[in-house]
Write a structure and sequence with these properties.
Helix content: 55-70%
Largest sheet: none
Strand content: under 5%
Number of helices: 3
Distance between the termini: 48 Å
Structural class: mainly alpha
Radius of gyration: 17 Å
Shape: elongated
Order of helices and strands: HHH
Number of strands: 0
Oligomer: single chain
């Protein structure tokens, strides 16, 4: 489960800037909890609790990625592609 959190959290962080304010707030909370969950100094609890917490967090990440709400358009990459300017 922690592997899923490690995989999904960066994807949500990248998408978050395009989300509406209310969804960004939710994403911030989920990402904060992801960081706490994956922190090496996280409080050790029993494995069942840790598994449950990671599963809940992975599901929250996946839910926000699958249904991020209305997104702002992506930034144009016209300045990054020199072939277009010729």
């Amino acid at each position: 489960m922690e592997g899923y959190v490690r995989l999904l959290a960066p994807k949500l962080a990248k998408l978050m800037s395009r989300m509406q304010d209310d969804m960004q707030g939710t994403a911030r909370i989920v990402l904060k909890y992801s960081d706490e969950l994956l922190d090496d100094e996280a409080p050790s609890t029993d494995l069942a609790t840790r598994l449950h917490d990671a599963a809940v967090n992975a599901r929250a990440l996946l839910g926000l990625l699958e249904r991020p709400g209305e997104l702002a358009p992506e930034a144009e990459a016209s300045d990054q592609n020199p072939a277009r300017s010729t």
